[in-house]
Amino acid sequence: MQTALSLRLATRLGPQPLKLAGGAALAVLLAMPALHLWTDPASSLHVSAYTLTLVGKILCYAIVALAMDLVWGYTGLLSLGHGLFFALGGYGMGMYLMRAIGHDGNYQSDLPDFMVFLDWKTLPWFWQGSEHLAWALCLAVGVPGLLALVFGWLAFRSRIKGVYFSIMTQALTYAAMLLFFRNETGFGGNNGFTDFKRILGYGIAAPGTRATLFLLTVLLLVAALAAGFWLVNSKFGRILTAIRDAESRLMFCGYNPLYYKLFIWVASAMLCGLAGALYVPQVGIINPGEMSPANSIEIAIWVAVGGRGSLIGPVLGAGFINAAKSWFTVAFPEYWLFFLGGLFIATTLFLPRGLLGLLRRHKEKA
Amino acid sequence: MADIKSSQWRYNMLGYAFSGISLGSVLLLAALGLAITYGLLGVINMAHGEMLMIGAYASYVVQNLFRSWWPGAFDAYLLAALPVAFAVTFVIGMALERLIIRHLYGRPLETLLATWGISLMLIQAVRMLFGAQNVEVANPSWLSGGWEITPALTLPYNRLAIIAFVAGVLVLTWLLLNKTRLGLFVRAVTQNRRMADSVGVPTGKVDMLAFGLGSGIAGLGGVALSQIGNVGPELGQGYIVDSFMVVVLGGVGQLAGTVTGAMGLGIVNKILEPSLGAVLGKILILGFIILFIQKRPQGLFALKGRVLD
Amino acid sequence: MMPVTTSQALQRESWDGDTPASGRLLQPGVDVTHGQILYLDDISVSFDGFRALNRLSLSIGVGELRCIIGPNGAGKTTMMDVITGKTRADSGSAFFGQTINLAQHSEAEIAQLGIGRKFQKPTVFEAMTVQENLELALAGPRSVWASLRARLSGQQRDRIDELLTLIRLGEQRARQAGLLSHGQKQWLEIGMLLAQEPQLLLLDEPVAGMTDAETEKTAELLLTLKGRHSLMVVEHDMDFIASIAGKVTVLAEGAVLAEGSLQQVQADERVIEVYLGR
What is the DSSP letter of A14? Predict the structure, then answer.
């Protein structure tokens, strides 16, 4: 049944050469948690905790890339702040995970360790309710959404677009990073949140927890792909590309681009938040470094390398670059930035439609 | 009693104004080249910060050369570093324009990404050449110390020198843009590329030289920065967001806008800092800029005209 | 915004049908009791000291086809910018019908009120097919919510077929708009304008870059629209203007220099001077 579902999805989602590959990839992804749980660690089929975490992390990135593609690839708004939405989602989840540590922290206090360290006596107001996972998830989705709504409304209303929009979003994430670096902001300063113990009572590093989180990530990615597919093939999706290609024509057709941009921008931010919320329990840490402008720009290159304006492309790009990154940083740490930098240049110069465009061109030639 | 208070207040204000102008002049050095290339080509050069960094490293190298070959003339190294830094960054800037940016005209977002790639490579190259740690660049003796106005207020010579230096660079840039043929071409292309092209302005060459010039100014800025702060591979990264904000605030195409934007940001930053702290002050300024461009999307000084889509 | 029911009723009307012209002209919301669809009164616009429009006053009658001519820089495009909300006038007023003050509406609202505009350079959505271009332009609700649930109705399909025939792009309906020839793009843009069901069409150089045969066809098309819609056409091509005749307004230095039939304005000393004096 799993394969049937994955095949059907692949048929609907991908161009011809990717159908089978997509179906196979999904089948493998769905099998991974099972192989982690129920095979002998010595067996060659066994999926280690390291691998599961790494792939889970990359899948979260793939969701972010997808969200980025909706605003950049389809709507033409290059955001350099998507790392911020991702990190905010992560912090939302992190608040719950910090509270779930309970008295098992170093100071055995009701408060998270960093607050004890700062000599705080009570929880700040914005931490209220964070002991409930449901509320933390609301924060993880709602805070990025709200920030995107306010920023987007101001930016789109005054018709900020192109590089201006990009550098404003970069300034936004930079400012947020500085804010979160401060201890007084109440999110653990430099160190952020880490040393999580459990989630909903289950051990955070337990194989079952890992497998469940992984599965949830796969499901979110598939759901995001399906929703994205539906969205870009609706009239709404065509209006997005119309904004990208000829915004003034669209206005003189009677559409107000503001609301369309705002809708996709906020939806994209919320999706990032959700991805961040799944990312943090898997990697076990969140800190302000996630908000650094460099991270956000890297998201753009995942999308560009994979092929923007297609939904599968960014997922492939995120997978490819992050897999390359984990290989490079072990094998040739010094050369990773050269590789990444070269990729930025080569993609923009020679592969405007990304890897997927390359595949398609091959197919068209054949 | 009241007299003492008011004079103290006056010195405080003077202190704020001084540190504001000092910060503003640093921002101006960082943003000036950016504003020129953005106005001219409509592209954001994300590797611009790295030109500052390279300029700073150029002064480090020149310093070391002086130290080992002409220790007697050590105090003069800074003067020698200026042309070296300018030349190096000028050449790198032109090479970037020729090799990469030229091929991306009309695609500003891609240019932004490609130049970011360049910046990553430059940072890593410097790390491999000079190490990831900060390097030490000494002040020549004539820049050490300061001018003591009151015991509470001393104006450091290196800051004063930077302000004077920025003023000098500004005058030179103004002369270059307004009194030379190259400047005329640059202004012509900024205002109407197609028209300039059709009346015979060699736009390709102008682009290249202007890009080199913008980078070269940043290189000079790097020499100045080496005198007041740490010199490390990530030096440029710290300035890039701020210098973008200067360009957003000041608008493009006119030096006056960039100067006002830089000084305004510098002074407001320093006024907010004592009461709010540096970070909240910065955030407040960002919020202000976002609100400001609601009213004037083109920045403080903009060339108005029939909107061409 | 016009009620959906009215626009649907209007869609049924065929191009060559004999429904009274007033059916399209008297839509709710636009009061044209004095027979004028557009009034520009004393409008000035300046850019950094350059006066693009200088106390311009002009009005267009219901169902009229008005040609606007004038040397470069006379303010023709700026005038269209003011009417469609792209540029705000420094002073003066622009009214659509008797009651709608255009200065109070955004570009999108003005388009929804019933003013369609074709740009000087043909602008279509190049990544979409010809048919999808028309679909987006079709009159109807413009909200995000509606766009998420939009399905093409049978009536709308018929309307698209009709428009495709009218603009002679029936064969190209599934082709990417970016692949069309220049003249075909111009027509597609005119088709998109018509799909919006505007009462007033502003056409900025509709035959620029067209072959003679295409220009002739365009003239025919505009003549069939006259009476049902009010049209304002900016053109440089005098033969084309002669072929669609009607009243001609000459703009110079941001103001109306002369108005009348083509022969009249061509004989006007001042008109000859602005054209030859440069």
Answer: S
